[in-house]
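Box 3.1 — From sequence to structure: DgyrCDS7905
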Amino acid sequence: MVKISNYILTAVLVCQTLLIIALVYHNFHISLNNIHPTKKKLNRSVLTQPVLTLSSAKRTDRGTLQSVNKQVQLNKIFYNRVPKCGSRTIIELIKTSAETNKFQVHELKEYSPYFHEDEYNYKTVETFEESIGPFLLEGHYHFLEFSKYNGTQPTYINVIRDPIERMRSFYYFRRFQPDHIRDMDNATRYRSFDECVSKNIPECVEPLGNSAEEGYYKIIPFFCGHEPFCRKPTRKALDKAIYNVENYFAVVGLTEYLKETTEVLDYFLPLFFSGIYETYLKKQKNVEVKYKTIKKSALLDKTATFMRDLLAIEYEFYQFIRQKFMNQLTIVRKSYGKKLSI
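Predicted structure (token representation):
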């Protein structure tokens, strides 16, 4: 009888041990799935596994991100803004948020070129390293890998738009926008975007044009970086840009959905942007008029078709960002019990 009791006791202990192991494994498996979600295909090969993404970051109160990548600072933000993607509106909203949420905003004055030599990059990194408390730096600046300059990577944010619309906006902005008019002869100033394309003028049909403001290849370099290959429209540059977005950009919004962009910023980065959505709603009509590019003529269908082919790699990146942004917006809407109806 004693032996039988011992056998029964041993069997019970073994079962309990196996149950504990099963529970631990189950919880661990769930944790891994939360950190490394299954990646969805986006008309391309499997993407690089994210490090700093909404799905791979731990969430705390009101959506605050806690990075899995310990080398990314969440209390320091670099808004390396792409030109003509609604950044003037975003900057006005950021300055209001800075007053409300008590963080510093520093503006980089040197906008052109958008990539820089090592000496300037070291100074940019030092600006972050010497800052205290919540801090945001903004300026037109290609993605910078801070580790190359002995710095700790900040969290990046940005906003992009339809590549053709971004290009057209910049084209007319530098010709007619008060306080931003560039020096050029009248024939160049009053030439339409369609004519610029049809006559194969470098400003419109070459990747880089003749200056930092010209050319059609402008969005991807802001996410790829300072390496020379980033300034060429290649698959290598696209892949690097996607890798950097997945690892270092908390939010990349869309000009076409500026209101929704403020929703996502408000929800996921409340340390900086709590209340920015309400601020946008109050200022919406005013900023839409204030920052709208003037004298922008309609686009011919043949120009749109030609440019869409020319901008194919930029559009692939745009669609990647659009899908990622919509996924983020879905998370926000679900958390507030709203349906995604856009």
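Summary of the box: The chain has two domains: 1-35, 58-335.
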